[in-house]
Amino acid sequence: MHLRKTLAAVGIATASVLVLAGCAGGDTPKSDASDAAWPDEITISLVPSTENADLAEALTPLTGYLSKELGIKVNGVVADNYAATVEALGADQAQVIITDAGSLYQAINQFDAKLILRDVRFGASSYASVAFTNNPDKYCADAPVKAKYAANDVDLSYCNGIEKAGDKATGTGPAGLKALKKIDKGTKVALQAATSPAGYQYPVVAMQDAGIDTDSDITQVPVEGNNNAVLAVYNGDAEVSFGFWDARSSVLKETPDVADKVVAFAYTDMIPNGGVAVSSSLPSDLVAKLTKLMDGYADSSDEAKKVMTDLVSLTDWTAETHQDEIDRYGEILNKFSH
Questions:
Q1: 147, 317 contact by CB (below 8 A)
Q2: Rg, Å, the chain Cα set
Q3: What rounded mean pLDDT belongs to the chain?
C-alpha cells in the first residue's frame, strides 16, 4: 500500500547536483499577476518510483498538462535521489520538487521552500507504525476485536480501542501508546533497520517516550522488512514488533491465521508521505494556480491516473499539507542522523 524508500538518501551530505537546463526569468507579467512577473519556464525535479528507459518522456503528460494550463513552459527532470531534488531547488535549477518527507523538511528549513501538496496513496497521506504482539493478555486492556482492513478486504485483530469492532480500520494514530509501558526489561522486540521510519525510528521514539531505555531495557531482535517483523511475532521469536499499517497483510498467504495470532495493540504518531514543494522565488499567484492544477491532475484524465501510478506510485495529491507531520518527521530524522 505504501511506497517506502529509506531515509538514507536524505542523509547524503554530498549528493550529485543535477545538471539541468537553466530557467530564464521572463519580463512579461501575466494579466492576473498579483505580486511579480511570472517566469517564462519552470522545472520540476522528482525521483521516480520505477525504472524506465525514458523517464523524461514519461513525464511529458504531466509537464504538457501544466504547460498548457499555466501558459508557460514546464520542464521535467529526473533526479538520482531525493537529496538531489533539494540541492536542485536550493541552486534554482528546479523550482518545483516532488520528493519524500525528509527532503521536504530539508527544503523547507534550508531553502525556505513552501509545501503545497502531500502525496496520497489509496486515500491516505500518512500512515502509522503498528505495534504487534503475540501476547494480548499482557498488552491489551480489553479483548481483541476484528476490523476490516480494506486494502486486502480482510478482518484483522486490534485491541486497546485503536479500532472499532466490525468497522473499517482507519490506521490512525497515535493510539494505545500507554500499552508500550508494559514492555518490561528483557522483552524481545523485533526492530527493522535504523533507517526505517515505521520499523525502527517512530517505534524507538514511542518506546523512549514511554520511559523505556531501548538500548538496555529490551532485547532487540533485528529483522529485515515489514513481513519479517510480523513473522517474528507470529513465530514467537519476539513478543513485540513494529511495522507499517498493516504489515500483516504481507504475510496472509503464508500465514492465513495471522489475524488471530498477531494482534495490533498501538499506533505511533502518523508518518507522512512525501509531497510537492516550490521555491520561495515563485510568484504567489503562480504557486496558487500550480497547486490547484496538480491537486486536480489525477482526476483530469485516465492518462493522468496512469501517469501518477506508474511514475510516482501515487493515486492523488492533496492540498491538505499537515506540515506539522513533516516537522515531526524532521525532528525524528535529525535524532537518527548521527
A1: no
A2: 22
A3: 88
The angle, 0 to 180 degrees and rounded to 10, between the axes of the packed helices 60-70 and 302-312 is 130
Instruction: Give 117 or 333, the one with higher predicted confidence.
Output: 117
Cell numbers placing 109: 528549513
**Amino acid (one-letter) located at 106:** Q
Residue spans of beta strands (DSSP E) within 79-217 = 96-99, 114-120, 126-133, 145-149, 154-158, 187-191
Contact 246, 264 (CB under 8 A): yes
Half-sphere exposure of 233 (CA within 13 A, CB side): 32
pLDDT in tens, 214-249: 999 999 999 999 999 999 999 999 999 999 999 999
Domain check: are 142 and 105 in the same one?
no
% of the chain at pLDDT higher than 70: 87
Q: How far apart are CA 337 and CA 283, in angstroms?
A: 34
Looking at the fold, whether 116 and 218 belong to one and the same domain comes out as: no
265 shares its domain with 132: yes
| Domain end marker among 251, 271, 291 | 271
Global pTM reads 0.78
Mean per-residue pLDDT, 24-28: 39
- Say if CB 229 and CB 248 are below 8 A apart: no
Is the pLDDT score of 27 beyond 50? no
